Amino acid sequence: MIKVRGIRKVAKVDDRFVPIIIDAYFFNDIDVIEFERELEEELSRISRIFDIKDYFLRKYDRFAFKISYKSFYKAFAPITKKESYEEYDVIFIFKKDVDEVEFLGVRLIGITSCPCALEEVKEYLRKKYRAEIEVKILEKVLNEFPIGTHNQRNVLEIIVEVRRNNYEEILNRLLKIARKCFSAETYEVLKRVDEIDVVVNLSRNTNFVEDIIRKAILNIYHEFRDEFTDEKVIIRTRSFESIHKHDAYASKIIRFDKIRRIFEECRR
């Protein structure tokens, strides 16, 4: 196999030119210099980045490539509704070997808060104040007031197999799914009342990395259950731990027919 990774080019996406990164894998011998020269020419001709697959199909028999680039979605602060544009990555993968298969995905950043630390802090406060505060009042405070836990940025990647050329529609739906998986979203612009809302809700929506995977699968099922059959689904998430020197990571590769069976069995 010949790998050509980290190729940086400029290509047209949604009537604008953006920097892209291409990783290409070839299962036969190729002329790498010729490939890079022709790729540059092809990118200058196509009107949509996803159409680059046609060049690969014309030129090569067995290959795979991955394209990623930055895009933005419009977001609104939770209380003031102040508008901002938030960054995410678009991922496009195409592979031709025995069969042809293509994938589309998104990668974006949110926040997770730790359920375990939250419960430990609550238990610490119960023991410390149970002799001074009536149990009913103490429990109300612990359940309704924001309690300290450790939070971290989380990167979530959701990639699905696509069998139609409705790329833009699928991207928008994947973005909507991913944004609902975190303990809270991140925002470039927040007023103080918005920050309060984000912080308070973090303690009410704690998640381990495996919870992020579960929520992604649930959201994917509800979004695509009337369309998908046995498409492959790839989910990866990584939390950059704030109080540890290591990170937490979880992933799942599963076909949609198995997701469907899981939820059908749960309803019985």
Structure notes:
This protein is of the alpha+beta class and 268 residues long. The chain folds into two domains: 69-114 and 150-267, Urate Oxidase (Roll), CATH 3.10.270.10; 116-148, no CATH class. It is built from eight helices and nine strands. Strands 1, 2, 3, 4, 5, 6, 7, 8 and 9 form a nine-stranded antiparallel sheet that branches. The protein is elongated. The relative contact order is 0.12. The model has no long low-confidence stretch (mean pLDDT 92).
CATH structural architecture of the largest domain: Roll
Number of helices: 8
Distance between the termini: 47 Å
Cα-atom radius of gyration: 23 Å
Q: Compute the number of strand runs.
A: 9
